Amino acid sequence: MNKNLLQKLDNLTSEPGVYQFKDDSGEVIYVGKAKRLNQRVRSYFQKSADHTGKIQALVRKISDLDVIITDSEAEALILENNLIKKHRPRYNILYRDDKTYPYICISNEERPRVFPTRTIIRDGSRYYGPYDHVGKMRLMLETIRKAFRLCTCACSSRMIDHSRGMPKWGKCFEDYFENCSYETEPEEYKQKINQVVRLLNGHTRELIRDLKHDMDALSENLEFEKAAVLRDGILSLEKYSSKMKMVSADGLDRDVFAIESDWDENVACGVLFQVREGKLIGKYHRFLKNIEGRDRKTLLQSFMEDYYTSALSGTVPDEVCMGNELQNDEPLFEYLWQSKNRKVPLTVPQRGEKAQMVQMARANASLLLKEWVLEKIKADQGRVPHSVKALERDLQLQRLPRRIECFDISNFQGAYTVGSMVCFVDGQPRKSEYKRFHIKDVDGPDDFASMRQVVRRRYERLKQTGGQLPDLVVVDGGKGQLSGSVETLKEIGMHNDLAVIGLAKRLEEIFFPGETYPVMIPKSSSSLKLLQRIRDEAHRFAITFHRDVRSKQTFRSELQEIPGIGVKSSEKLIKHFGSAAEVAKQDFETLKQVVGKKSATAVFSYFSPEQKEEK
C-alpha cells in the first residue's frame, strides 16, 4: 500500500458518502456507498476480513481512493448509481438490457408534449415505462389520444420545415388528421396533462370516477357536446382498464421484485411487476452481469436500487414486495421514505396474494434467464469455427479451445534470447493480446529454462490480475519444453486450471503431460492446420522481436564505442534516428539538438569522412 493511499485511509470521515477505488492508471475499478465511510473503506484492507477471491483481487489493484461526502445514505445511493453508469467499473455489478425499451415521455416544456421514445435525455422531462412490449405502449398512446384528444407524435416546433408550408407553432402531422391538440387553451391543456400523468401512474379507477363527476356536471349545465367528449374518453379508459390483469383484490399500489441467478454463466435476471390499483400495468426486467461473489440478497438490492434511482419518474408505491430479504435495506428505505413522504414497507410475503405475485415474478425471472442462456449458447455455437471444434475432438479436451495461447523462444547462439506469446480466439489471431518477453538470468542457449521463465511470468501475472485464462496452452517444442512448463505451472498452483500440450516441429507430434508417446493428428485435419498456423505465428512473432532486439543492441554497441558517448546518449540517438547508419548521415547541428554540443562533436568527428578513411 502506497503512502498516499495510507494517508487517505487515516483521514477518512465517519460521514455517509460514496467511495471510488482506482488502479495504477487512474481508472475507477469499483464504486461503493457507505453509511460511515471510514468503517466501510477500511474493512477492505483488514487481513482478518473474510473476503472472496474477487474482493482480494480488487484490493491488490487499489492504488488510489476518492470519496464524496453526502448528507444522507439516500443521496449516496443515487450518486453511487450514477457513478457506476458513468464509469462502468470492472468490479461492480453491470446491467444489461436485452433490448432498448420503449418509454412514454412528457417533455419538460411550457406546453409539454406526450410522445414515445427509446432514448432517455436528462433534461427534466418525465419518462413512464419501460414497456416490455411496444404493443402495450401503443395501446396506452391510443388511449391517451382517444380519452384526452392529445397529440402523441414526437414532432416539435424545432422540427417544422416552414419552407414546405407546414403550420407554425408546433402543429404536427396529426393536425392533418384532426387529432392535434395545439389549439387547446393553456389551462385546459395543463389539466389534460395532469390526467395523462394519473393514467400513466396507473390510477385509472380514480381518474374515471373524477371524469364521470365532471361529465355529470356538464350535463346538468346543458353542455352536452363537452359531456359527450368526456363520455367517449371514459369509454376509452374503461376499455383500456378492462384489458389489465387483476392480481390483487385490495386495490393497493405495489412494486413486486424477484431475482434468479445462474452462477455458471455469471449472470442474473431481475424482474419487476408494477401493480396499480390491484392491476398489473407493467413488467420490467434487467440482466445483471459480473455477479461473481455476490449472494441473492446483494443482487436483489442492487437491482432495486438501480430501478428507483434511475431517471424514470414513476411514482413510489404504497408497498414493495420482494422475493427475499435485502443485504442492507436502510439506504433504499430512506430513499423511498423521502420520495413518498411517509414510510414505504419492504416486505417478504410468505403466503396469500402477495406471495403468489412474488412467485409469479420469480417464475418470469427464471424463464427469462433460461432463454438468455440458450440464446448465448446458440450464438456461441454459431460463432465457433469448425477447426476449433475439430481440435476439441481430436485432442479429447474437456472444453472447447476457443482461446489458445502459444509460446516460442528465439535466440542467436545463446545471445539476445527472447520469448513470445500469441493469442488466438475462435481460430483468429488477437494481436492486441500478444506478449513479448526479454529473457533474464539464463546463460547460454537454454530453451528449457527460457520457456519455464516465460510461462511463469505470464501466468503468475494473470493469477494476480484476475485476467481471462486460456482454454489451451501450446508450447513450441517436445517433451522437454512441455515437462518444464507443466512443472512451472505446478509451482504456481495453476496446473489444474490449464490444458497444456507440446507441439514438436519435426513430425508435428503432439505431447500431453505425463504421457510417454505422442499423438499424431492426420495431416489433412483442420485441427492440425490450426495448431500449425498458431505455432508458425508464435515463431514469426518471436523471430521479429529477436531481430529487433539484436539490431538495436548492435547499433547501440557501435555508438558506445565512440569516446565520450555513454549508454544514455546512444539510446537517445537510436530512439531519435532509428539506427547507427542514420546517425552517421546527420550533420553537426542536427546531432547537437538531440544530445548536446559535446556529444554531437564526438559523434560527428567519429563519422567524419577523414575518420572513415582511417578506419
From TrEMBL:
A Pfam match: HHH_5
Tell me which UniProt keywords the record has, alphabetically: Cytoplasm, DNA damage, DNA excision, DNA repair, Excision nuclease, SOS response
Q: Which residues cross the membrane?
A: none
**What are the annotated GO cellular component locations?**
cytoplasm; excinuclease repair complex
Asked if the record carries the keyword Cell cycle, the reply is no
Q: What SMART domains has UniProt attached to this entry? A: GIYc
List, alphabetically, the PROSITE patterns matched.
GIY_YIG, UVR, UVRC
Q: Which CDD domains match?
A: GIY-YIG_UvrC_Cho
Oligomer and partners: Interacts with UvrB in an incision complex.
Q: Which NCBIfam families match?
A: PRK00558.1-5, uvrC
Biological role: The UvrABC repair system catalyzes the recognition and processing of DNA lesions. UvrC both incises the 5' and 3' sides of the lesion. The N-terminal half is responsible for the 3' incision and the C-terminal half is responsible for the 5' incision.
Q: What is this protein called?
A: UvrABC system protein C
